[in-house]
Amino acid sequence: MVYAIRMEEKTLIQACIRGDKSAQHLLYKKFSSLVYGICLRYAKNKMEAEDSMQEVFVKIYNHLKDYQSAGSFEGWIRRIAVNTAITGYRKNLKGRLEDEIDDRSEYATSLVEHHDVDYTMEELMLCVQALPDGYRTVFNLYAVEGYKHKEIAEMLEIDVNTSKSQFSRAKGHLQKALLDLSARKIALEA
Amino acid sequence: MNKIAVDLKNFSPEAPVGMEERIQTALSTKKSFWAFSWYTMNVYVVALIGAGVMALVFWNRGDNNTLAQNQAPVATELKVIPAVAANVSTNSDATLNAEADVKTSAVATTRRRKTVQEETNTSVLVVENCQSVSISEPVIPVVVETVEVQKVPEEIEVPKKVNEVVRPKGRSLRLTRLTGK
Questions:
Q1: Is A41 an 8 Å CB contact of chain B?
Q2: Which of A144, A145, A173 has the most B C-beta neighbours within 10 Å, making it the best mutation to test the interface with B?
Q3: Contact in structure between A65 and A29 (CB atoms under 8 Å)
Q4: What are the tens digits of pLDDT across the range B10-46?
């Protein structure tokens, strides 16, 4: 089964490399949701996510010949999307660092676990997008992608401790945002 | 937090409408630097025209310089700098030297005048130009010729060297150190 999928993927990739429009359309249909989801997570808003998605697909089509079938194709696409997001973050690093000077103690007391917070995926995405750029990037890389703080520090060219503190603050921000959302929902229901 | 992370990872919303066309357009418009396009062609044309204009400007400037050098009139004006009298006392050597210098410059001025007069015979242009030149005679100061030499006394008194040796009283420090006494 896996072999058949691999063969199907390989044929699709070969056709895309040849410039076959229908193959490119199929590839887009198959991976557009995945790429858009990643782009939304790293972007500030939908507009930025769409720009990022366009860049990711252009990179995918242009570098398909460099893909070595040893690894998963989905993993390769995911890596391109994440790397594009990181590149975008590093491009505007100077402006973003100024935004991230924040009060450390503001959310220190709210770091409690909430198991009964009710949210939709759109609401959660909005909460993530509302995070400052640095917090959001570190949070996505650590909590969602599963990178270590050392790897994140190397990728973003920051200190390991900065990565840790940014993740901690991002967690605090997110929990507070979700708590507020939950409280608003309860108030509306009542 | 893990639940949030898993939810986020699995979140794959539908891509916005018209995104595929946008990507295809971006793919087709993204071309190599060397690929031909009217836009880049315009840039090249403007750059070429600019370079041509600059080259023309510099070429003309170079021509003007050579023309100016070739057409420059022969220097005909003769400037005679009047000798300045040295403000020193009449009896000193400097005064004598100044007088000698003034005489020499006067001779040189006369020679130059002669040369210019000879040149006027050969060239009409030079004659015309020379007519307006006024040559002022150098001012030669009157110097008193009597020199008084003051005699300097030849005897010099040299004080005699006195060989006085001051010896310290009692034992020397060095001796005390050696003997320990």
A1: yes
A2: A144
A3: no
A4: 888 888 888 888 888 888 875 556 666 676 678 888 9
Give A46 to chain B, closest Cα distance, Å: 9
- Helix, strand, coil percentages (3-state) for chain B, rounded to 5, are 55, 0, 45
Residue A171: give the domain boundaries. 95-189
Check A33 against B12: CB less than 8 A apart.
yes
pLDDT tens, A110-150?
444 445 667 788 888 889 999 998 999 999 999 999 999 99
Q: Is there a domain that residue B12 lies in?
A: no
Name chain B contacts of A178, Cβ cutoff 8 Å: 4
In this structure, the answer to whether residues B67 and B81 fall within a common structural domain is: no
pTM value surpassing 0.95: no
Which is more confident, A91 or B122?
A: A91
Cross-chain Cβ contact A61/B14 below 8 Å: no
Domain final residue, candidates A60, A91, A122: A91
Which position has the higher pLDDT, B61 or B84? B61
Residue A131: name the closest of A123, A142, A139 by CA: A139
pLDDT of residue A189: 77
Q: Are A175 and A111 in contact (CB under 8 A)?
A: yes
**Tally of structural domains, chain B:** 2
Does A113 lie in the same domain as A72? no
B101 interfacial to chain A (CB closer than 8 Å): no
Contact B1 A113 (CB under 8 A): yes
Residues sharing a CB contact under 8 Å with residue B35, sequence separation 6 or more, in sequence order:
none
Q: Is B21 exposed, middle or buried (0-12, 13-18, 19+ CB in 10 A)?
A: exposed
Task: Give the total number of structural domains in chain A.
Answer: 2
Indicate the residue among A91, A110, A133 that finishes a domain: A91
Nearest to residue A33, comparing CAs of A86, A74, A83, A87?
Answer: A74
Answer yes or no: do B105 and B54 share one domain: no
